[in-house]
Amino acid sequence: MSELVIASPMRVEAAIVASAARGARVRTTGMGPRRALAAAGGLAREGTGALLVLGFCGGLDATSVPGEVIVAEEVYAADDEGHPEARVRCESCAELLTRVAGQGLKVRSGKIVCVSRLALGERRAALHAGGAIAVDMESVWLAPAAGERPFGVVRVVLDSPGHELLRPQAIGGALRAARALRRVTGALHDWSPGH
Predict the structure, then answer these.
(1) Coil, strand or helix: which one is 193?
(2) Mind giving me the DSSP string for 22-84?
(3) Distances from the Cα of 102 to the Cα of 16, 17, 107, angstroms
(4) 195 inside domain
(5) Can you give the pTM of this predicted structure?
(6) Helix crossing, 170-188 with 11-18: angle to 10°?
(7) Ordered DSSP codes for 97-142
(8) Is 194 a domain residue?
(9) N or C terminus: which one in the chain shows less Cβ crowding within 10 Å?
(10) What is the CATH number of the domain that holds 39?
(11) Domain total for the chain?
(12) Rounded CA gap, 142 and 27, in Å?
């Protein structure tokens, strides 16, 4: 089995992931493109096996709910924030989708757009109009760390258009998302692409 390195942006995500990772190496990368790019250098040097990005994301459409699992088919940088163009296909999507299915969670695959700042309100609609179903702040900038190694992105929706973080009922959604992230990690902790 190849070695698996799991990258998680924030400490709270990394703690949840580490509690279920059972032997996979978990690295906290920091939030946002600058920190993700800085972390990518270290991740590139330390791994020989697959690189999997796990953590939270924002849902972009009306059907998205906290705790939903998004397996990326592709990650790309938002084209309206001045980032260099970056677009990475996640060739392991089908395999990861199969591994996550059957966990009793809502799961779907699609494109994840990566941005520099939190996407709320009308910004979500604009990003969704571009073809993405979820938004995060790191994945495309962590992708270069994989080099020729298998690369995958699995995110859990923390908030969505109908469940914004700034609303009073957000705590219930955050707890659902945390439980889902732990279950997803348990299903993927020994992921070895092609096996």
Answers:
(1) coil
(2) TTSEEEE--SSHHHHHHHHHHHHHH-SSEEEEEEEEEE-STT--TT-EEEEEEEEE-TTTTPP
(3) 20, 19, 9
(4) no
(5) 0.92
(6) 50
(7) HHHHTTSSS-EEEEEEEE-SS---THHHHHHHHTTEEEEESSHHHH
(8) no
(9) C
(10) 3.40.50.1580
(11) 1
(12) 12
Question: Would you say residue 78 lies in a domain?
Answer: yes
Cα angle: 126, vertex 129, 135; to 5 degrees: 65
Question: In the structure encoding, which two tokens stand for residue 10, read together?
Answer: 């924030």
Is there a contact between 43 and 142 (Cβ–Cβ < 8 Å)? yes
Query: Which residue type sits at 162?
Result: G
Full domain range(s) for residue 106: 4-188
Distance between CA atoms of residues 188 and 195, nearest Å? 12
